[in-house]
Structures are given as C-alpha cells and as structure tokens.
C-alpha cells in the first residue's frame, strides 16, 4: 500500500522531457510530469497491440477477476490517490470530490466487471437461428479530461478491458500525475501491455493517437471543438468513436416547488466540483412566481459552503483547476455585470491571493441570451433566468447546439415528466441534476457528442457486434 509520498516517487519520471506540476490552490510545486513523444506513443500502441490477442483469448471470467483485482488495488491505495488528486486537480478531499472520485473509480471498475453481456438470441424458430455476439475491437485509445481525471479514465479503461480490448490512455496535460498514479496502481495487478499510458501535448501526442491506423476505437471526454477535430482526424481510418463533449445544461423550475426544499439540490447540481463538470447545471430558469424565493434560499445555502485548499478537511469547494479556466469564468461574470445583471452572491475574486479561486457566484435578472447563459462557463458562476411562459422557456432551454443533460424541478412528477419529454438532452433528471449510476447509460445529444457509456450499452460501445446466423 502506497503513501502519498511513495506513490509520487513511484511515478516521478527519471528521464526525458518533463514539466512542473503545481497545486492550483497554493501554486506550490508538487512534482514533475512526463512530456512524451509521438515515438513513445507508437511504442505504447505496439505494446497494446501485441498484448491484445492473448488478453482477448482469456475467458471472460478471468478478465472479470483481473478487473476486481484492479478495483481492490484502487481501494487499498485510495487515500494516497485522493491526496494526489486533491493536490494536482485542486478538488477538496471531502464532499463530492477527491475521496468520492477515487471511490467512484473503484465502483465503476467493479460495475464494468460484473455487468452481464450474454449472447443475444435474435431469431430462433422454423426460419433458423441468429445470435448476436460482442467481440473485442482491438486497441482502444482513451483521452481523459482534467475535471474528473481518475473516474472518467476508469469509465474508458474498465469496460474496454472487460470486452477484451487493450488500452492506450492519454491524460489531460494539467492532470497527468493523477491518471499516471491510477494506472500505476492498476498495472501492478494487470498483465504487461494491457494498459498503457502516454503523457504529452494534446496537439502532438493526442493528435497522433486519433490518427493512428492501429487504434480501433477512440474514447474522448472534453470540449466540442476538440471533439470535432477528433472526428476529422479519425475519418481516414473509420475509427469508432465515443465522444462525450461540452454541455451547457439547463434546469427548469416550475412554479409549484418548495424553494427551501430544492435549494441544496440546485446548489450541488450547479456547483459540484466547483462547477467544473460537463453535466453540471449551468443555466437555471425559474418561474416568476417563485423566482425571488428560489434565489433567496439558494444564496443562503451557497454562502455557507466552505471553499479553500483541498487538503483542509473542512472545505468542499476548491479552486478552478487552471488559470485559463479562471479567466473564462471571470470574463463571463464581468460581461454579465456590465450588461446590468445583478450579482446576488460572489463575483469578486481576490486577484492577489494565491491559487485559482473564484468565489461561488450567483447572477440574477440576466438576459436569457447573455454570454454567461449561452456559453459554457465551466466554473462556480450560475445564471438564474426569470420566465413566465412554459413554452418559451422550453424553447430557450433547447435553442443551444449542445444537449448533454437537463433537469426539471417540480412537486408534481407528472408535470415534470411532461416537460422532460420536451427537452433535447442525453439525460433529463427530475428534482436533481447530474447524478450518475454505473448501470444507467450516459451520453449527449446534438453537439454534446454521441455514443453511450455505462452498463450494458457501455460494454456494447467498446465491442464489435457479430451476428452468427444459420
């Protein structure tokens, strides 16, 4: 079992190009990360390809057993992994943050192992018999993001391995150590070559991964513009894709709610991981009848949620992971202020303080087409838009080109379901926002991507359907 110090030492590169890694809460130097080359990527792909046939030849029960060993290794090293994640990504240890993410990595690994995917009998009658089998694709290229670097990496790794593929993963440039540590721990129980990591620039290593003819599937979580680039880069090889891209999730609050009762759910829907979540609540539409009360109760709840350095056990909100994301949030809030919107909470960062801290910010009385509403802020700034006509607000919720998640808040489930049916999104939650389950498929609509992860659909997405008929 590793300590934080021994785990960091185990993954610290001893040769090659490196870059400094600093804590986004304190700007403290915490270590160095490798910056690898296309040649190193190609060698990793070759290792994965060489290992794939023997890995796929194992009985399913043996691959399942390996995945449970990987989950055990994550569990045994959970505290060291969580501390490294907190220091590099910035998220606090407690709350729905670092320890939660490491625990989720274990849970999703076991779920991928234990989800049954039997042969499907499609036809079995006097005309004949047809069966659907699911075969490995080969080598899966995984590109994971910086907001939930460990858990989203597992979402890509675990189902791919379960179905007999091998994996080459490229972590985000700003959270390389977190994924490197996770892979290091897992690889202590996996056969050599099955899981490979190459760290480097997205424009160099990531681009080469998406263009490689030896990669049968790309799994990517990140922005829509980068996703479009991956589609273009992979076209010549007709590489299979699962793309979970940007979102700007809408929530609609109906006039029959109890504002005090929904305040906590609204808060965590919007501010989980300090707003740095693809399927977070990013624009909230509230009916005029309850608008003022919803704002009041949400502000009261939000101002009592502690933000600070992640290793302080009291904090549950942290900094933005990188200065570029701080700038995005800051500029959008400034533009909202300049337009005449009201800052009900926050909006006043201390630019001289260490770390990328942006205060919890709630913006009210804002135009529905203000940039803070229609552009994904990906941070702790929630615009709340007043509405009175249900048809008009549904049109506003649907008018953007993205559609990852959405939510409806009501004391009448039947009414909520009627509204949910009219929303254009991969998932619509009722009286909550952003909750995921390892057995419930997840993915986007419109330009939020395509393909589904989790459960049976997630296993099918990393396999080739093969019909045997006769």
General description of the model:
This protein is α/β, with parallel strands linked by helices and 470 residues long. It folds into two domains: 4-245 and 448-469, Aldehyde Dehydrogenase, Chain A, domain 1 (3-Layer(aba) Sandwich), CATH 3.40.605.10; 249-430, Aldehyde Dehydrogenase, Chain A, domain 2. The chain has 16 helices and 20 strands. The strands form five sheets. The protein has a seven-stranded mixed β-sheet, sandwiched between helices. A six-stranded mixed β-sheet has the order 7-6-5-8-9-19, with helices on both faces. The longest helix has 20 residues, at 38-57. It is globular, with a radius of gyration of 23 Å. The model has no long low-confidence stretch (mean pLDDT 98).
What is this structure's SSE topology?
Layout: H1 4-11, E1 18-22, E2 29-34, H2 38-57, H3 60-76, H4 78-89, H5 98-114, E3 120-125, E4 128-136, E5 139-143, H6 149-162, E6 166-170, H7 176-187, E7 195-197, H8 202-211, E8 217-221, H9 224-234, E9 240-244, E10 249-253, H10 259-271, E11 281-287, H11 291-302, H12 323-338, E12 342-345, E13 361-364, H13 371-374, E14 381-387, H14 390-398, E15 402-403, E16 405-409, H15 413-420, E17 427-430, E18 445-446, E19 449-450, H16 455-461, E20 463-469
Parallel strand pairs: 5-6, 5-8, 6-7, 8-9, 10-11, 10-16, 11-14, 13-14, 16-17
Antiparallel strand pairs: 1-2, 3-4, 4-20, 9-19, 12-13, 15-18
Helix pairs in contact: 1-4, 1-7, 3-5, 3-7, 4-5, 4-7, 5-6, 10-11
């Amino acid at each position: 079992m590793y300590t934080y110090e021994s785990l960091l030492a185990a993954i610290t590169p001893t040769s090659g190009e490196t870059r400094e890694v600093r804590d986004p809460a304190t700007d403290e130097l915490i270590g160095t990360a490798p910056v690898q080359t296309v040649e190193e990527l190609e060698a990793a792909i070759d290792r994965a390809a060489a290992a794939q046939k023997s890995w796929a030849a194992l009985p399913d029960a043996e691959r399942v057993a390996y995945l449970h060993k990987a989950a055990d290794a994550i569990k045994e090293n959970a505290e060291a992994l969580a501390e490294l994640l907190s220091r590099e990504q910035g998220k606090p240890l407690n709350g729905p943050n670092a320890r939660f993410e490491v625990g989720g990595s274990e849970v999703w690994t076991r779920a991928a192992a234990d989800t049954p995917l039997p042969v499907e009998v499609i036809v079995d009658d006097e005309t004949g018999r047809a069966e659907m089998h699911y075969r490995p694709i080969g080598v899966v290229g995984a590109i994971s993001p910086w907001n939930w670097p460990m858990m989203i990496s597992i979402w890509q790794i675990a189902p791919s391995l379960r179905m007999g593929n091998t994996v080459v993963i490229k972590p985000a440039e700003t959270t390389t150590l977190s994924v490197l540590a996770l892979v290091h721990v897992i690889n202590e129980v996996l056969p050599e070559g099955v899981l490979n990591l190459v760290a480097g620039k997205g424009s160099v290593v990531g681009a080469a991964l998406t263009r490689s003819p030896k990669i049968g599937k790309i799994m990517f979580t990140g922005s829509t513009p980068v996703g479009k680039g991956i589609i273009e880069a992979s076209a010549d090889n007709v590489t299979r894709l699962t793309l979970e891209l940007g979102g700007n999730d809408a929530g609609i609050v109906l006039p029959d709610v109890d504002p005090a009762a929904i305040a906590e759910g609204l808060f965590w829907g919007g501010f989980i991981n300090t707003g740095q979540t693809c399927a977070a609540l990013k624009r909230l539409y509230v009916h005029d009848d309850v608008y003022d009360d919803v704002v009041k109760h949400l502000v009261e709840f939000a101002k009592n949620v502690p933000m600070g350095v992640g290793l302080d056990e009291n904090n549950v909100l942290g900094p933005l992971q990188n200065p570029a994301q701080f700038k995005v949030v800051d500029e959008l809030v400034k533009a909202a202020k300049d337009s005449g919107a009201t800052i009900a909470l926050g909006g006043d960062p201390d630019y001289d303080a260490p770390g990328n801290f942006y205060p919890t910010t709630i913006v009210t009385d804002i135009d529905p087409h203000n940039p803070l509403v229609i552009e994904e802020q990906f941070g702790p700034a929630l615009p709340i838009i007043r509405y009175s006509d249900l048809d008009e607000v549904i049109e506003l919720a649907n008018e953007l080109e993205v559609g990852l998640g959405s939510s409806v808040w009501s004391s009448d489930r039947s009414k909520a379901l009627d509204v949910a049916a009219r929303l254009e999104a991969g998932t619509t939650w009722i009286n909550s926002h952003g909750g995921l389950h390892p057995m419930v498929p997840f993915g986007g609509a419109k330009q939020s991507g395509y393909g589904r992860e989790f459960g049976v659909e997630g296993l099918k997405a990393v396999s080739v359907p093969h019909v045997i008929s006769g």
